[in-house]
Amino acid sequence: MPFTLHGLAVSQGIAIGHVHLVSHALLEVSHYQVAPRRLADEVARLAAAVDMVRADLGELKTTADQQPGHAEVGALVDLHLMFLDDPMLIDAARQLIEARRCNAEWALVQQMELLVEQFDQIEDAYLRERKADVVQLVERLVKVLLGHPGRLPKKRKSDLATIVVAHDLSPADTIGFRDHAIAGFVTDVGGPTSHTAIVARSQGIPAVVALHNVRHLVHDNELIIIDGTRGVVIIDPDDRIVEEYTLRQTELALVQSKLQRLKDTRATTLDGEEVKLLANIELPKDALAAKAVGADGVGLFRTEFLFLSRDALPDEDEQFEAYRRVLKKMGDAPVTIRTLDVGADKALDSIGKRSTEANPALGMRAIRYSLSEPKVFLTQLRALLRASHYGKLKILLPMLAHAHEMDQSLALIAQAKVQLIERKQKFDPRVEVGGMIEVPAAALSLGMFIRRLQFLSIGTNDLIQYALAIDRTDEAVAHLYDPLHPAVLKLIGGTIQTGLRYGVPVSVCGEMAGDVAYTRLLLGMGLRQFSMQATQMLSVKQEILRADLVDLAPKVQRILKMDEQERVHEAVERLRS
Ligand code: PEP
Ligand code: MG
Predict the structure, then answer these.
(1) How far apart are the C-alpha atoms of 418 and 99, rounded to whole Å?
(2) Which DSSP letter does residue 351 get?
(3) Where are the alpha helices (DSSP H) in 121-162?
(4) CA gap 176, 20 in Å, rounded
(5) Under the phi-then-psi rule, with left for phi > 0, alpha for psi from -120 to 50, and beta for the rest, what region is 309?
(6) What is the SS3 assignment for 515?
(7) Ligand 1 in contact with 462 (CB < 6 A)?
(8) Position with higher pLDDT, 351 vs 50
């Protein structure tokens, strides 16, 4: 019997395929009784998992020790090995199996929770944070016990498409889609501008999130349809429904192929204003997609994706090669590369800094993290500067709020340049440095940014999150995420206008830039540089080609003065009619 679920539509398109359930090891642990005669086997099962994890960690340690600059990774592995030997974890779990006649994974999780509670009471912040290491280690062990240390299916060739269904997917998981034949994804949780949703859009993979308990309503291999435009998921559809959606899929493909004709057309408004359309990319190979839609350059390279989901940080040479690849692919076009924006929902496995903060989005994120780890930051800056020799590279600093963050970053850039001069390595001495405006405090104190930086880029995803105090990854408050809130428009409009007044280029690189619903509004505010996922660029270009600024500008000025949300919504909708 087919049935339908409704969630948040976060990435457009239609996918028809078979369910692949992705596990979240710690959420999957069930509790069951073990017969007395099987208890020894259960204890042996735990011991075998411990041995396997110990061997994995040992290998990791050897790799870390052989790579210069990875002392931190080595230290982290040592810590995990130490917990593995701690009687409070494994021995206690073994005793629990015997005393309660329970399964090994459940015993481990019980013991982990006990330890986490104890860690929470420690005053020293550093030691308190180590509870994250215990959780990571137990998750590793549980995955081995459950028999699925890997998470995604291998690339299949001719099968019907695979649709990933999960409780939640980290950005690192979604980036892993690239190496697998995934046609879409569906999750219990998530919001429209979570990084997971962004990655799905960048891949052109339809996605629906915030379905609450979809994982428990579907079976592995079941047929499923995702309508990423309407936020609908149909489970076990009959032939008639499949036929209808196949038809829609074909229609969508036709629209896309028509749009492709605009690839080489310049993005010029009806009254002759030229607009630059830049691409957001997550990995160097995305530059190909940017080229394929005729992007004027890269407006945002989110470098953190080079750092996610790996056991050790990429070293200077690896980063340099990655940045240079993008520059080479983009030829003379500008390439704006953002320094590491980790933290919040993009935790780094390799340095064990998985967040244990109560409010990670307000915590050690982005520039704050880089400034707290100057060695990691300097390594990235040297790699960026070296790559600047091969094209038109610009450095973009994320999540700035304070003058001293810019001063320290600029000082570190200067230091990186001196180091390269000493090494006789080439770089562009005039490389431009810009900043993201994604904290309301920054949008309200632009003078200090303009005095220090050469360009600005508005990150509307975070700007909205911080202005409206809603976690962008939390589906429970997703309905409050409103790009058209009058306060948000004042922050965006004010930044664009200030940039124009002082001759400092301003772009928008948040998801608003790639949504045709906002193209005319942003144009009317004075925006002339949009940076978005390549998959959205041609639709936005079509909207620009149909826009008349003489008509738009005064209407948008009136919208900026409105202070009733509903009136703003109506007026923005009218801009398109
Ligand atoms: C933003 O916040 O709008 C942005 C572009 O950065 P990210 O989505 O990577 O946080
Ligand atoms: Mg951001």
Answers:
(1) 63
(2) T
(3) 125-129, 131-146
(4) 14
(5) left
(6) coil
(7) yes
(8) 50
pLDDT in tens, 242-267: 999 999 999 998 998 999 999 999 99
Instruction: State whether the beta carbon of 282 lies less than 6 angstroms from ligand 1.
Output: no
CA 472 to chain centre: 11
Q: How far is the CA of 517 from the centre of ligand 2 (A)?
A: 20
Question: Does any ligand 1 atom lie closer than 6 A to the CB of residue 438?
Answer: yes
- Which residue among the candidates 195, 402, 479, 569 is catalytic per the annotation? 195
459 close to ligand 1 (CB < 6 Angstrom): yes
Judge whether 148 counts as a catalytic residue. Answer: no
Residue 48: CA count within 13 A, CB half-sphere? 12
Q: Are strands 223-227 and 14-22 parallel, antiparallel or unpaired?
A: antiparallel
| Structure tokens that stand for 556 in this block | 């948008």
Tens digits of per-residue pLDDT, 77-133? 788 889 899 889 999 999 999 999 999 999 999 999 899 888 888 877 667 767 767
User: 441-498, pLDDT tens digit by residue?
Assistant: 999 999 999 999 999 999 999 999 999 999 888 878 888 999 999 999 999 999 999 9
Kindly compute the dihedral angle of the four CA atoms of residues 339, 443, 195, 384, in this order, to the nearest 10 degrees: -10
Rg (CA), the chain: 25
Rounded-to-integer distance, Cα 431 and Cα 415, Å: 14
Report CA(472)–ligand 1 centroid distance (Å): 10
Q: What gap in Å lies between CA 420 and CA 412, rounded to an integer?
A: 12
Sheet containing 232-235, strands listed edge to edge, beginning at the edge strand earlier in sequence: 3-6, 232-235, 223-227, 14-22, 162-166, 182-187, 207-209, 8-11
Report residue 97 as tokens.
């199996």
Specify the fold of 30-145.
Enzyme I; Chain A, domain 2 (1.10.274)
Tell me the CATH class for 263-575: alpha beta
Yes or no: say if 260 and 253 are a contact pair by the CB < 8 Å rule: no
Higher-confidence position of 469 and 75:
469
Count of helices and strands (H, E) across the chain: 23, 16
Q: Residue 475: is it exposed, middle or buried by C-beta count within 10 angstroms (0-12/13-18/19+)? A: buried
Q: CA separation (Å) from 507 to 2, 210, 328, 396, 467? A: 45, 30, 23, 12, 19
Contact 531, 509 (CB under 8 A): yes
Question: Looking at this protein, which amino acid is placed at residue 156?
Answer: R
Dig out the tokens for 499 from the structure: 């940039």
- What would the two tokens of residue 390 be? 């091969």
pLDDT at residue number 550:
96
Task: Compute the distance from residue 427 Cα to the ligand 1 centre, in Å.
Answer: 27
Which residue spans within 73-229 are E strands per DSSP? 162-166, 182-187, 207-209, 223-227
Residue nearest to atom 6 of ligand 1 (CA): 459
Domain boundaries of the chain, sorted by first residue: 30-145, 263-575
d(CA 418, CA 477) in angstroms, rounded, equals 47
> Distance between CA 265 and CA 285 in Å, rounded?
24
For residue 174, what is the enclosing H or E element? helix 171-175
Whether 30-145 and 263-575 share one fold: the answer is no
